[in-house]
Design goal:
69 residues; flat; mainly alpha; single chain
């Protein structure tokens, strides 16, 4: 199952419009840096086939990651 998922992800990344993915992730980052609602840019990134990891990494760049004290 793991191999199947990895192959499927690789295929999606190969077949998607990577320029569009980068553009939507940049839009998401700009929204997160300001006061805009981040949900619409997240939805656009999903429609462009950005992965959950790519979206999460973009948000982590802006907000960081929670660390328990």
């Amino acid at each position: 199952m793991e191999r199947y998922q990895k192959e499927k992800l690789a295929r999606v990344k190969k077949e998607r419009n990577n320029a569009r993915v980068k553009e939507t992730l940049a839009d998401l980052k700009r929204a997160a840096q300001g006061t805009a609602n981040v949900v619409p840019p997240i939805l656009e990134a999903v429609k462009a086939y950005a992965t959950l990891g790519e979206i999460s990494d973009t948000l982590r760049e802006v907000f960081g990651e929670y660390r328990e004290r």
